[in-house]
Design a protein that fits this description.
Number of helices: 12
Number of domains: 2
Shape: elongated
Low-confidence stretches: none
Largest sheet: 7 strands, mixed
CATH architecture of the largest domain: 3-Layer(aba) Sandwich
Number of strands: 11
Mean pLDDT: 94
Radius of gyration: 23 Å
Structural class: alpha/beta
């Protein structure tokens, strides 16, 4: 059995349940005799390289248990793009701290980071087990049915659109439309989740603009006019990364981050929601609103899905179990069992596969028009987000 210390890190944007995964790893590590001490990276791999390491064994049981219900990233996060020059620095710290187990909670870039560190250590003859725990509200990680963090963010979006839909309906004589923007760079999972509370054709949302389908201004305006004529107002939900057929972002931004991802709406660019708002207003002269949540769905503890908490914790514990078995260079996955009743277990996928692939919404989840979801998607989503409230609607009987 490989014996040594373990290090845990969190990277990228947070979720409402990322700390539940952290609690799962810490709890399981205490029960594994191969791990002598459990350490934490303060502010991810960037903090680790700066020597910012904390002793998680000194935290009380109450604090660790409380992490299950605490949003954001308790260890602190970063978005550092790993370079080849970083690898010797990291290995030197691993040696000095006697670290032979590394667990990181994150998305594609995080899985690539673990994979490269573990591969470099192996090349240098250093025993290191690296396991990734999935995290992203975008739900675009390859190889897993869904990612911890997505169900809670989906619930946040669903509730927000339900409630702003009631507002839009009742204020239609003032504002004729509303555009709600959901996060999700290349995948429309959260945009699509906005339909969860829709019970009738009039209920919000009426139209979806998904990153998986090219945006057509002409078609969009025809859809808006059709919905306005039918309902008296229009509720639209768009993904932040929606693009025209030529790949140009509707947000019109040309700014990119360290990973060459477009920074939507940054430095002179407009958000997708404000761009759509302008398109509608210019065409019809309508007055309308736009809603942009940005990072709020990533850390809204008051709207957390209980299943999400339980599965995030389960993934953390499963990561240590894999390490206990001597397995490495894997990411924990969630696997949905077939059948009418929702059940989910953990599985694995190689880190190399996750790092280079993403998971957009499949075609069977998007309608033929490309502006809404299918019933298959609603079936997929329903068990993840929990029960939604029921709101009353006046029947408006004539006096």
């Amino acid at each position: 059995m490989l014996k040594g210390n373990a290090i845990i890190g969190q990277s990228g944007g947070p979720t409402s349940v990322i700390n539940a995964s952290l609690a799962g790893i810490i709890t399981a590590a205490k029960e594994f005799e191969g791990i002598k001490r459990t350490l934490g990276m303060r502010f991810g791999i960037e903090g680790f390289m700066a020597g910012n390491i904390i002793d998680l064994d000194k935290e009380s049981a109450e604090v660790i248990d409380g992490l299950k219900r605490t949003p954001s990233s308790a260890l602190g996060s970063c978005r550092h793009k790993l370079s080849d020059d970083d690898l010797p620095v990291i290995l030197d710290i691993l040696r000095k701290q006697d670290i032979h187990y590394i667990f990181m909670i994150g998305g594609n870039d995080t899985m690539d980071t673990i994979h490269r560190i573990e591969g470099y250590a192996k090349k240098e003859g250093y025993d290191l087990i690296g396991i990734g725990v999935p995290k992203t509200v975008d739900n675009d990680l390859f190889g897993t049915d869904h990612t911890p963090g997505f169900p809670s963010a989906a619930r946040y979006i669903a509730l927000s659109v339900m409630q702003e839909g009631l507002l839009a309906r009742d204020m239609q004589k003032v504002d004729q439309f509303v555009v709600f923007q959901a996060i999700g760079r290349d995948a429309g999972w959260l945009t699509a989740a906005s339909v969860a509370g829709k019970k009738s054709a009039e209920d919000a949302p009426h139209l979806l603009c998904l990153p998986e389908r090219p945006f057509s201004k002409d078609k969009f305006l025809k859809d808006v006019k059709r919905c306005y004529d039918e309902f008296g107002f229009v509720s639209i939900v768009c993904g932040e990364g929606v693009t025209y057929a030529d790949g140009r972002p509707v947000s019109a931004s040309e700014v990119t981050d360290k990973f060459d991802n477009v920074e939507f709406g940054a430095m002179g660019g407009v958000s997708a929601a404000t761009a759509l708002h302008r398109i509608i207003s210019d065409e019809f002269g309508f007055r309308g609103e736009f809603e942009i949540t940005e990072s709020l769905p990533m850390s809204a503890a008051d709207r957390t899905s209980q299943i999400d908490v339980e599965e995030a914790y389960m993934c953390g514990k499963a990561a240590v179990e894999l390490a206990k078995q001597g397995k490495t260079s894997l990411m924990v996955t969630l696997e949905r069992k077939a059948g009418g009743k929702y059940q989910c277990t953990t599985g694995t996928i190689g880190l190399a596969e996750v790092a280079i692939k993403s998971k957009p919404m499949p075609d069977e989840f998007i309608n033929a028009e490309g502006n809404f979801v299918t019933e298959a998607f609603r079936d997929y989503l329903r068990p993840l987000i929990g029960e939604l409230p029921q709101y009353s609607t006046l029947q408006c009987h004539k006096a």
